[in-house]
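Field reference: sequence -> structure
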Amino acid sequence: MAAGSQRMGFIIAADPCSLGKAEALFSGNAAHTNLVGMILNAATSGGSCTQAVAFATYLNWDFGILSMKVNRGMLGRFGLARCSPYF
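Structure field:
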């Protein structure tokens, strides 16, 4: 859980899709009341697909999730709610 940070809740190089959702290492996290909930970078182990599993983000000022340099992404059990400066 990352709550109330000044900037980002999480900055991650997520798991490759080849792991599958059951083996995902970064899962079951939440970020709220941050500037950005999660910055999702490409998986470090190569491949063209990156995944984030069981992640919730809400009440963030700018973005719930911001993706950088990801060719293909997969979100499983992902919750995104009320992420804007105009609550």
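Note: Strands lie at 2-3, 8-13, 15-16, 27-32, 36-41, 49-58, 63-68, 72-81.
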